[in-house]
Fold this sequence. Notes:
The chain has helices at about 10-35, 60-75, 85-90, 110-115, 185-190, 205-215, 230-240, 270-280, and strands at about 45-50, 55, 80, 100-110, 120-130, 130-140, 145-150, 155, 160, 175, 200-205, 220-225, 245-250, 265. The protein is of the alpha+beta class and about 280 residues long. It folds into 2 domains: about 10-160, 2-Layer Sandwich (Fructose-1,6-Bisphosphatase, Chain A, domain 1); about 175-280, D-Maltodextrin-Binding Protein, domain 2, CATH 3.40.190.80. Strand 6 and strand 7 form a beta hairpin. The protein starts with 10 loop residues before the first helix and ends with a helix.
Amino acid sequence: MGGMIEETETIEEFLARCSADVEEAVRKAAAAEILPRFRRLAAHEVDQKSGPHDLVTDADRLAELRLTEDLGALLPGSVVVGEEAVHADPAVYEALQGDAPVWIVDPVDGTRQFVHGDDGFCTLVALVQRGVVRASWTYAAARDQLATAVRGHGAFLDGRRLTAGPPEPGRDLVVATSHPDYTTDEQKRALRVLWTDGLAPRACGSAGLEYLAVARGDLDAVAFSWEAAWDHAAGLLLVEEAGGAHLTVGGEPFRVTGGNALPFTAARDAATARRVAGLLRSAR
Length: 284
């Protein structure tokens, strides 16, 4: 991989020089730790965390370790907030409140799909500085699709610029919502307001791939009820840079540092975001 950040270099300059190195690190982690285990997982390579729907595999753990080493080496002084590291030590999450650049990593977003041999999973990496997502990488390894975004410079899928655009007039809005297997009764009640005329809600799969679908204009919106930054940071920037918007029920954009009024939505355009957020707000 290429050179590391210079002492006087800004994040913008680092990204201009090293985005390809980050992409290479993501692809190598997937090639080494994830794809060789896809549809080949042994029983001892799969564990439960908080329950039967909350799975973790050796691919998650080993890919995160590899990304932590490689991304940290690319940007000295940065820290990594990874899903599995936070599970082992929740204090790791506090780095999002600091001044150091933070790599937010979800090594396998959609672990349940991965375990079941479904290709609907991805690796998510976002670079955050002082609470602002500066760049993101969404890699669907089994589909060999890579989506990238740099704040102020657009969103791209395999080199093609993404523009979500408004939904077609007159049809129901398709909204992917928090999966019922991962929601409390209170969260289910908050989301139930979306089952109304003019909307067509469905349960979400991999959050990262749902965000990509919004950025591509293949999905109108998502409505989610949890805050974990590794699930949302990469996709939210992708949606923003494709022309979309995100809002919490408090009327503010979602903050990866936490403290959001939930649920929240991300949509292919601002009008759709306001419509979905307004419905969610009406249920409070």
